[in-house]
Design brief:
Length: 365
């Protein structure tokens, strides 16, 4: 759906938030599919919300450590006793879908944590790291607070430390091979938006890093977090926003040859899988996943629907890429550019609307 008219500032702020949840929910049933042929066999071309299938051909959840980050033994009890109560038995079975139990239009765990963040900011009236940390711990450790089955490595690292009595502000795990992943960026847009009213130009960078460091220790990821802050701020502050030069500027700062990639795609009529899956890994690693978002934002600058469908169907870590891509294009094109069937199809739409509008009332007052 292409935006028909210039969106208002409020509509663009609203679009940035709704875009996150839509991008995640659309990709959820095919999250971490690395075999695109299997994705197409199981779901066809994903254009609408669907429920996940029980069998996931690329799932490695059975290899994940249930007592901490990364791969390892499933003897640990962080999963099952501290978080994800009653879900541990699902981890040890081969080829189980990561989001088994979710339904069409549901959001994955990281986006549910964004909702915790939205509620925290609204309650306090500003972003407060300590308040969010308390809310995050309480929500994650409460049985049946959500229906997802999987928790990324950084959640497991945090609660492994927490269960040993480490102070919450020191529970972020040590960096491992997947700490610098795009899942770490998903919680940042509301923090960026809540801090934009500050007169201190360095406040956004400082607050973004403060929030990131609650759960991630990664100098590499911090660089991309700052880049996201600059890009989202630029989109929301510009009137009207010009997404192409802003995306190009950030790509240049990260040494990603975006112009050359787009020119090659257009010249040789390449499909998106040639870029994401060929030139760039479709996996979570930030050095590939964030440039993949920039590529899709630059290729589909005026078409929210096409961009999110393209992101979903190249597979890999498409949920977290989709959340960030949805935020950026929502900020540029406004909520009016998001297909109504997607907005209406979110299973938590009513609750989300209340949380988003309450958050915006505080930010735009």
């Amino acid at each position: 759906m292409i935006a028909a008219k210039k969106p208002s500032q409020t509509d663009r702020w609203r679009g940035a938030l709704w875009g996150m949840f839509v991008g995640d929910a659309l990709a959820m049933p095919v999250h971490w599919y690395y075999d695109v042929a299997a994705l197409q066999r199981d779901f066809g071309v994903v254009r609408d919300f669907q429920a996940p299938k029980e069998f996931h051909p690329n799932s490695i959840m059975a290899l994940a450590d249930t007592g901490g980050p990364g791969r390892g033994s499933q003897q640990g009890e962080v999963v099952g006793s501290v978080i994800l109560h009653g879900k541990k038995h699902l981890w040890g079975r081969r080829n189980r879908h990561y989001h088994l139990g979710l339904q069409a239009g549901d959001n994955t765990l990281n986006l549910l944590c964004v909702r915790v963040l939205l509620r925290s900011i609204h309650r306090v009236g500003r972003y407060d790291a300590s308040e969010y940390l308390r809310d995050y711990i309480a929500w994650m450790t409460t049985p049946d607070s959500h229906g997802d089955t999987y928790a990324e490595s950084y959640h497991r690292a945090f609660f492994a430390n927490y269960s040993r009595g480490v102070p919450p502000e020191q529970c972020a795990g040590e960096e491992n091979h997947d700490t610098a992943s795009i899942g770490g960026l998903v919680g940042l847009p509301p923090v960026i938006m809540a801090t934009m009213s500050s007169a201190d130009p360095s406040a956004i960078d400082r607050t973004v890093l403060q929030h990131l460091r609650l759960t991630h220790r990664s100098a590499v990821l911090e660089r991309y977090s700052i880049a996201l802050g600059q890009l989202l701020t630029g989109l929301l502050q510009a009137s009207p926003p010009e997404i192409e030069p802003l995306v190009q500027q950030v790509a240049d700062s990260l040494d990603f040859p975006l112009t050359q990639v787009i020119e090659k795609v257009n010249r040789e009529r390449l499909d998106d899988q040639h870029v994401i899956g060929g030139m760039l890994s479709p996996a979570c690693y930030i050095q590939h996943s964030f440039p993949a978002v920039l590529y899709l934002a630059a290729r589909y600058t005026d078409d929210f629907e096409a961009a999110l469908i393209a992101n979903t169907n190249v597979g890999g870590d498409n949920c977290h890429r989709g959340a960030i891509l949805g935020t950026l294009l929502g900020a540029a094109l406004g909520c009016q550019a998001i297909p109504d069937r997607w907005l209406q199809g979110l299973r938590s739409r009513v609750e989300l609307e209340d949380e988003i509008e309450s958050f915006l009332d505080g930010c735009l007052a």
